[in-house]
Amino acid sequence: NTVMAAQMTNAHRRFLQVLMSNGITEGSEARKLHQHCCETDKVYYAHDKLDDFITTINSHLQPLFMQIRKGLSEDDGRAHYAVVNLAETEVTKMASDYTESELELFRKTMDLIILSENGFASSTDILNLADQLKTKKMKKKEAEQVLKVFVEDKWLSEKNGEYTLHTRCIIEMEQYILSNYQDVARKCNICHSLAIQSQVCESCGIGMHLPCVRKYFRAQTEPRCPKCNEFWSCDIP
C-alpha cells in the first residue's frame, strides 16, 4: 500500500481536482492540464503518457469506487474525460443536486431521447411531460428553466430546440442506460461505447456513431455494413 501511495504525486492530485470541478474535460484540455500539472510539480512529463498518468490515478481511486473514464463526443468524435462514481446510479448521483420532480423530468426526457430514432427529443415533447409528472406537476416556464439547468450542468445538450444526452451524461451513465434500456440501448459497432445518436443497419440492426460512420466509410470504396456486409442505406454524414 505504501508503494501505491508513493506513486500518487501532487501533479496527479491537482489533475484529479480540476477534472472533478469541471465535470467533464475535452481531450486537448486534459493534455494541456497534464503538462501543466507535471511542470508545476516538477515531475517527469511525456506528451504521449496521459493514459498512463490517468491509470495511476485510477489505481488510487479504485478503493473509493471512482474512476476517470474516457468517452467520445457523439457530435464530433473528440475524446473527453470525466470522473465517474461507480458506486452510484444516475438517480443517487443527481439526487443531491435536484428535486424529485426535476429528477422525474430528467428521467422522462432520457426515455424520449433513448427511445427516439435519432437520439434527440424536441423541447415541445419534453415540455408536454411537465404537467404529467407524478411527483409534482410543473408549469412549462418552470420546466424550461429546469432544462436550461440540465444543459448548464452538462447532463443534456441542446441544438435548435432539440435535446440529447451530453457526453458527460453518456460517460457517467453508460452502465445505468445499458441495464435500464436493455431492449433499445446499443453499443457502437466500431468504438464499442454506448451510441445514442447513431445510424443503424437496416439489415442486421447494428448501430454506429455518426463520427465512427464517417471515419469507417472514408476508407471503403462503397459503404457496406461492417457486420453483415449489406449495402449501408443511410446517408454518410
From TrEMBL:
It comes from the Eukaryota. The keyword Cell inner membrane does not apply. The keyword Zinc applies. CDD domains: RING-CH-C4HC3_NSE1 (cd16493). Residues 188-229 form the RING-type domain. GO terms for biological process: double-strand break repair via homologous recombination. InterPro entries: Nse1, Nse1_RING_C4HC3-type, WH-like_DNA-bd_sf, Znf_RING, Znf_RING/FYVE/PHD. It is found in: Chromosome, Telomere; Nucleus. GO terms for molecular function: ubiquitin protein ligase activity; zinc ion binding. Keywords: Chromosome, DNA damage, DNA recombination, DNA repair, Metal-binding, Nucleus, Telomere, Transferase, Ubl conjugation pathway, Zinc, Zinc-finger. Its EC number is 2.3.2.27. It catalyses: S-ubiquitinyl-[E2 ubiquitin-conjugating enzyme]-L-cysteine + [acceptor protein]-L-lysine = [E2 ubiquitin-conjugating enzyme]-L-cysteine + N(6)-ubiquitinyl-[acceptor protein]-L-lysine. One of its GO terms (cellular component) is nucleus. Component of the Smc5-Smc6 complex. PANTHER family: NON-SMC ELEMENT 1-RELATED, NON-STRUCTURAL MAINTENANCE OF CHROMOSOMES ELEMENT 1 HOMOLOG. Belongs to the NSE1 family. RING-type zinc finger-containing E3 ubiquitin ligase that assembles with melanoma antigen protein (MAGE) to catalyze the direct transfer of ubiquitin from E2 ubiquitin-conjugating enzyme to a specific substrate. Involved in maintenance of genome integrity, DNA damage response and DNA repair. This is Non-structural maintenance of chromosomes element 1 homolog. It comes from Rhipidura dahli. The gene is Nsmce1.
